[in-house]
Design brief:
Blueprint lengths: L2 E2 H14 L5 H13 L3 H6 L4 E2 L1 H15 L4 H5 L1 E4 L2 E4 L12 H11 L7 E5 L5 H9 L4 E6 L2 H14 L5 E5 L10 E6 L14 H4 L4 H4 L7 H10 L3 E10 L5 H10 L3 E7 L5 E7 L1
Parallel strand pairs: 5-6, 5-8, 6-7, 8-9
Antiparallel strand pairs: 1-2, 3-4, 9-11, 10-11
The structure holds glutamine.
The site of glutamine has 13 residues, from helix 7.
Length: 282
């Protein structure tokens, strides 16, 4: 039996729809391209062509995983963030487009800073925040920390593969505990979902992102409290702390940092127009 492209795609799309996947047809196309090495255009122009049995088998196995709501990025172990290609694993948060807002705000803050800034990324995961900043600022160097040894290993591999190994180092530990010295920029996208919101998350998130990367205690703010306590001593003179926040957390996070003695210097909204990132000075 041969497996034609159009038949494979139609069957897969139906399987994904039944599984409740939102973009069933689009995900089927992405996975078929990845399984076969074909381009998107090939799927249209050669839709009656057959693919090899091995490729069809790989594709069907991936479709079965996607139908159980595993994200495409986790099936392929890859996620694009600010046009860079990141490895993701079960130890890391899947980088979100919303976090590009944090990178943009951090770049704004660094525009008036030193030419060769030192950057610290707390809870680095894949390393996407730190490495995107290094990509934009050729003289910058940085350190990422993560409580998960597996995440640190992924971040190191991403730094190597993307060509930043000489400018980025990663240490395992709780927030700033493994680092010394001060930084011109401290960034973090901490876990900020309240424990009670767990049941309202999509299966793609709840079942596949690591819990430590998602949940910030009863009110979602535990990580901000820890970062506020540690942060001031980490900032070099004129340094800035830039944080991602949940879109309903602006007032709470702002108050928390102001009460801890910081001054809020900027805010940036995400593409949906919701407050997504805050910047503080000591
Ligand atoms: N810094 C990483 C990211 O933004 C991981 C953040 C986290 O695990 N909460 O993707």
């Amino acid at each position: 039996m041969t497996d034609r492209i159009d038949v494979l795609l139609a069957d897969a799309t139906e399987t994904l729809r039944r599984g409740g996947v939102a973009d069933a047809a689009a995900d089927a196309r992405i996975l078929l391209c990845a399984a076969t090495g074909l381009g998107r255009l090939d799927l249209l122009t050669r839709s009656d062509a057959a693919v090899s049995g091995a490729d069809a088998g790989r594709f069907r196995a991936w479709i079965a995983r996607r139908a159980k709501r595993e994200p495409v990025s986790r099936i392929l172990a890859r996620r694009e963030f600010r046009s860079l290609d990141f490895e993701v694993s079960s130890d890391t948060l899947d980088p979100r487009p919303d976090s590009e807002t944090l990178v943009e705000l951090a770049l704004d803050m660094l525009a008036s800073g030193p030419d060769a800034p030192r950057i610290l990324d707390l809870g680095t995961g894949t390393g996407c925040l730190l490495l995107s900043l290094l990509d934009e600022i050729p003289a910058a160097t940085g350190v990422g920390t993560d409580i998960s040894p597996g995440a640190c290993a992924v971040a190191r591999r991403n730094a190597d593969r993307l060509g930043f190994a000489g400018r980025a180092r990663f240490f395992e530990g709780n927030w700033a505990e493994p680092v010394d010295g001060t930084f011109d920029l401290v960034v973090s996208n901490p876990p900020y979902i309240a424990a009670a919101e767990k049941s309202s998350l999509e299966p793609e998130v709840a079942a596949f992102d690591p819990e430590t990367a998602l949940f910030g205690g009863d009110d979602g703010l535990d990580a901000y409290r820890e970062i506020a306590a540690a942060g001031a001593s980490l900032l070099a003179p004129g340094g800035t702390l830039v944080l991602e926040i949940g879109h309903r957390q602006e007032a709470a996070v702002s108050d928390l940092f102001r009460n801890a003695g910081y001054r809020q210097v900027a805010r940036r909204d995400d593409l949906g127009g919701r407050p997504r990132s805050l910047a503080f000075g000591a």
